Amino acid sequence: MLGHTPGHDRPVDAAVTPVPYPLSRALLEAVLADRTSDRFVCELIWPRLGYAPDGSGTWSAGPAAGETWRQSFPIEPQVIATRPASVALTRSIPKQYKQLLKEQLGFAGYRIGALYPRRTRRATAVNWLLAHLATTGEPLPETGPLPELLEPPADPVAGHPGDLPVS
């Protein structure tokens, strides 16, 4: 996908350096409350892992992706839908940042009756995003842009319309 950078005459490849969606406390709380699609959660993580859209709707590991990620997941790791990608994401959180979800957001976990793999993987995703901010020295603003928020799914196992089945 070609576009133009304002003030420049040469085309730029917009797919090379995707701009990650801005993070905020309000956004991360919406993810934990299951108010966004699983795909949106993944798209918060993929550019920060070094993945970029290839123009066909698929995200591919780019040069900024770590070697382990490029080898294990050459295309978009489905960190909510698949266990291997979720486990890899969990393992990539540095030990000193494993409790950021509790420390920064006060998240005590889901109630036993609401404990589903999709939701625990969302918690992992949010913790990873908080760890990413910590390792890059970026602040977590209280507010920021939000996507159109969805109602929590009626069936939390199935998720939102269009979410991939969880394995």
Briefly summarize what is shown:
It is built from six helices and four strands.
What does this structure look like?
By secondary structure, the protein is mainly α. The chain has a domain at 17-49 and 77-136: Actin-binding Protein, T-fimbrin, domain 1 (Orthogonal Bundle), CATH 1.10.418.90. Helices cover 37% and strands 7% of the residues. It has helices at 25-32, 38-49, 67-72, 83-91, 100-105, 117-136; strands at residues 2-4, 11-13, 51-53, 59-61. The strands form two sheets. Strands 1-2 form a two-stranded antiparallel sheet. A two-stranded antiparallel ribbon has the order 3-4. Helix 2 (38-49) runs parallel beside helix 6. It is globular, with a radius of gyration of 16 Å. Mean pLDDT is 89; it is low at 1-15.
Which secondary structure elements does this structure contain, and how are they paired or packed?
Layout: E1 2-4, E2 11-13, H1 25-32, H2 38-49, E3 51-53, E4 59-61, H3 67-72, H4 83-91, H5 100-105, H6 117-136
Antiparallel strand pairs: 1-2, 3-4
Helix pairs in contact: 2-6
Helix content: 25-40%
The computed structural class is mainly alpha
What is the mean pLDDT?
89
What's the CATH architecture name of the domain at 17-49 and 77-136? Orthogonal Bundle
* Portion in beta strands: 5-15%
Give the CA-based shape. Answer: globular
Question: Spans with pLDDT under 50 lasting ≥5 residues?
Answer: 1-15
Structural Rg: 16 Å
- The succession of helices and strands, N to C, reads EEHHEEHHHH
Largest sheet: 2 strands, antiparallel
Individual helix count: 6
Quick one: CATH class of the domain at 17-49 and 77-136?
Mainly Alpha
